[in-house]
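Narrative of activities, Objective 1.

The group set out to show that a structural description can be obtained from nothing but a protein's sequence at a throughput compatible with the screening campaign. Below is one input-output pair from the validation batch, recorded exactly as produced.
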Amino acid sequence: METYKDFYIPAAILLAGIFIGGTILYTGGFDITPERTAAALPAGTARDAVQSNGSTVDFTITKDDHIRGNPEAAMTLVEFSDLECPFCRQFHPTILQALQEYGDDVRWVYKHFPLDGLHPQARPAAEASECVWEQKGNDGFWQFVDAMFEEQERLGSAFYREAAEQIEVNLAQFDDCVSTRKYQNKVEQDYQQGIQAGVSGTPGSYVNGVLVRGAVPYSQLKSIIDSQL
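Output recorded for this entry:
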């Protein structure tokens, strides 16, 4: 005769498998940050740059934002990213493909969202990217970001300096900028803006304010873009 005990262990294993499987499906292609919440923000900073109407989020794009593509494009993709996140690395060429296909119709805005608890080099890399931007503008910034994702396994101060040198920055100025953490507030402001928008991990992107969660395949991103054009 089969009893309750006969089913107890297999059932427990099955339930555990369902729970773990569900978690993997929910977070697939997505690094989650569990340890930080939104800080109190003064007027005129990240809080004012994000407006939500329930189903979409509106971002105020300024001259200090990092834009790739046509600055006046009708379609805006805002990505909150982490330079040490493997899923962000996976998603990076996906957005590049969208820019190539849609041309002047789409602009890509990059925002920093370093997951400090998971990726210790994410914030230093983000701050270094801003030090390149200081000298070389958005072209230099994007070259640096591309280099970080192309050789993500090399993240560290020596690699940041090497990449910056290849972009032909003034290294003395770059070193001073990095060592004094000149742009730590700018990076943190991006992070807090993401928290205000509802970002909980990376990559977290918004296509004309519609959330795209994780490193979705190109076919899915294309479908979302087409629905917003």
